[in-house]
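Box S2. Input/output pair 1.
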Amino acid sequence: MLINLLLIATAYLIGSLSSAIIVCRVWGLPDPRSQGSNNPGATNVMRIGGKVPAIITLLGDGCKGFLPTLLVMRWGFPSWVIGGVMLAALVGHIFPIFFGFKGGKGVATAMGAFLGLNWLFGAILIAVWALVIKVTRISSFGAIVATLLAPALAWFLLGNDIVLTAIVSTMSIILLWRHKDNILRLCVGKESKV
């Protein structure tokens, strides 16, 4: 039991490493929490620093969810531990202990976790996310569409695993909550494009 809790706690600490803030410091860019949209995520890093730091931020945030999830999957831990690790990495990203509990919206970290959980599940969601962004040029809309699709897709692709589907659904609710302002702006046609 102790090892399970340690794995979940470690996933939270890994999630708390804010790629956006670290990349901006290395690049000599302003703190993304006080520039642009004030969100420490890849989209805001692109606004204030360009494509290269944004891509590194996106990969860093994705790896925070992907690596811990993949490891517990490979080691054969039960569904509740796998789900706990996924959720902890996401919560760490959103409320990072190392950065005053002010983190990003969590999309890349969640997508990374989904990819680590099941490559097809993750790949479909990432493809939907990317396709919607390419068509609409609205990053948040891609995230919202992929997030809405995730619970039903999890049920079909994860062998009807109730625990993992419940965790994916919880993560989806958290992501939608983090995008509540974006959803309001989308409804009135004021959401900014990439």
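Box S3. Input/output pair 2.
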Amino acid sequence: MTAHHQTFHVAVVGGGLVGKCAALALAQHGLRIALIAQPAAPRPADALFDARIYALSASSQALLERLRIWQALDHDRLSPVYDMRVFGDAQAELHFSAFQAAVPQLAWIAESSLIEHSLDAALRFQPQVSWFDTRAQGLDVKVDAAMLALANGTVIEADLIVGADGAHSWVRAQIGAEVTRRDYRQTGVVANFKASKPHGETAYQWFTDDREIIALLPLPGSCVSLVWSARTDHARELVALAPAQLAATVERATHGQLGELECVGTAHGFPLSLQRVDRLVAPRVALVGDAAHLIHPLAGQGMNLGLRDVASLADVLSKKEPFRDLGDPVLLRRYERSRREDIGALALATDGLQRLFSFPGFFARTARNAGMSLVGAQPLVKRWLVSAALG
């Protein structure tokens, strides 16, 4: 065997949070892992916080704890969410409380780079992981192994290929999986602000009259993170605003809920769409994260869904019968079955909410706000919604 031909149990293609968690989770089960990924980019020196913020559910926290990543994070840069207040476009309001739901917190707000840098450090100390900072460019699946050709000339032989390479997944394209895409014609605008009023560890969400969705998530201290799901033309205008103008616009749109806002860092936009994939597995290949599904960010559940993919795949592979290899179709179908319901339910819920609040007209607005008020009056329904969001 040449130096350019290397053998592993699993090759993970994709180096975002989900791919790196997959590599670490499988390595901790004693498997030899090839990780084809780039290290995390450093946070811009002039930014107080990352532009990319995640609301991590209890299931994501549990996975990061098992990977010993959670314990390594700088907890001064994490913010718990104890309450969530959701406002309709005609006075209706929903309030979710960790206290009422009898959970320690509804979510943790964390920066992408904070988690990714901890993952990078852990992966470099994990002897079971070999890191290839290059890209995959050829996949050949044989009966007894999959061959992955890398751009640097290395050929990796593995029992299983895990595609964690995002919404435009190269791995998914290689297996010919069919993607159904619904473009929301919206762009998510993200930016961070200092607020003059305390956020009280509360996440806020507004469904606006012009059928857009604005969320302010608590960050440590007096800072908040904006996620504004705006029509794409409006989003372009928002991103182009000077920092002071953007702060004033967000202040007005959120009815001064957190007082005066001061922009810290730069605003960014990313297109929003729903993507469904006809299968999560193929011979010797499994998809996780955005390669497997893409949902609207209005519930902040996309990353949590991807991390549950990782937990499920690691669980299925760790319980395999001794006579099966890691690419056995029976194992991969078990993984796919274990994920279908969770992915389908969340895609349906987020897409349904987005559609519900995008209907114009008086009657549609009256009906959805009446529905919100009805849910708000049902403690059992609210508790079920919280437990579903916690994963």
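Caption for Box S3: The chain has a mean pLDDT of 88. Residues 5-47+114-180+276-353 form a domain with the FAD/NAD(P)-binding domain fold (CATH 3.50.50.60).
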